[in-house]
Design brief:
Strand order of the largest sheet: 1-4
Order of helices and strands: HHHHEEEEHHHEEEE
Radius of gyration: 20 Å
Number of strands: 8
C-alpha cells in the first residue's frame, strides 16, 4: 500500500494518525485488539457491519481510544471569552501573587480571554494519579469514567470522542508495523506528525494486508 489518506478535519486526521502510529509501535496491543474484533465478528456474522452498539461493547477498543485521546489530545488547549463577570470556584486553591493569601475562587471579568489547558488537565497527577503520563488503556476497563479520577468531583467534558468504527475497519483488514523513520509531533493548531527529513505531515508505517480467514 502506497499511502492512506484521512479525509477529515485536522483533529480527526491527527487522532487517526496517532492511533495508527501507536499500533505500529505496539504489535502485542494490536494483536489483542484484533482478537477482540474477530470474536465480536464471529458473534455478529461476517455479512453484517458493526453498529455503534457493537463497538461500544468492545472494552479494549474503547479503552485504547479513550486513553489515546487522553494522553495525546490533538487539541492541547481551547480559547474562550467571558460574556459577563463570572466567579469561578477552584478545586485546588492558589496563592494571590500580590497578597500571598490563599484563593479558593477567581473573579473573571467580562471580556477576559480564557485559555483552557486540555493537555495539562489530561496529564494532571492530581486528577489521574501518579501514572498520569503513562499510556495505560487498562485504566479505563471495568470502570465508570468518574472512578478513574483521584478526585471524585473532577469532571473533564469534551476529552473523548468515538473513533472505534474507523479503527475496527482498519484492524480487521490490515496489520501495521513500525517504519524506519522517526516521527516528530509538532504543535500548530493541532498536533501534527512529521517524519524525519520530510517537510509535509505524514505518518509512515509498514502496512500488510491480512488474509481472510
Amino acid at each position: 500500500m502506497g499511502s492512506m489518506i484521512h479525509g477529515a478535519q485536522e483533529t480527526s486526521s491527527s487522532v487517526l494518525s496517532r492511533f495508527i502510529s501507536l499500533l505500529a509501535l505496539n504489535p502485542e496491543l494490536q494483536a489483542r485488539l484484533r482478537a477482540e474484533l474477530r470474536e465480536a465478528r464471529a458473534s455478529k456474522g461476517s455479512d453484517k457491519d458493526f453498529d455503534f452498539r457493537d463497538l461500544e461493547n468492545l472494552p479494549l477498543l474503547d479503552a485504547v481510544c479513550r486513553e489515546t485521546l487522553r494522553l495525546f489530545a490533538p487539541v492541547t488547549f481551547v480559547w474562550r471569552q467571558t460574556m459577563e463577570d463570572t466567579v469561578v470556584p477552584l478545586q485546588y486553591p492558589v496563592l494571590d501573587a500580590t497578597t500571598g493569601s490563599q484563593l479558593r475562587s477567581l473573579l473573571i471579568t467580562k471580556g477576559t480571554a480564557v485559555y483552557l489547558g486540555l493537555a495539562a488537565a489530561n496529564r494532571s497527577q492530581a486528577i489521574w494519579g501518579s501514572d498520569a503520563s503513562e499510556f495505560k488503556p487498562e485504566r479505563w476497563m471495568g470502570k465508570a469514567e468518574h472512578e478513574l479520577m483521584t478526585n471524585e468531583n473532577a469532571r473533564l467534558p469534551g476529552l473523548y470522542s468515538n473513533m472505534q468504527l474507523v479503527l475496527a475497519v482498519l484492524l480487521e483488514s490490515y496489520s501495521f508495523g513500525r517504519s524506519d523513520k522517526e516521527i516528530n509531533w509538532k504543535l500548530y493548531i493541532t498536533l501534527t506528525p512529521y517524519a524525519q527529513g520530510e517537510s509535509e505531515p505524514q505518518v509512515p508505517v509498514k502496512v500488510t494486508i491480512l488474509d481472510e480467514d
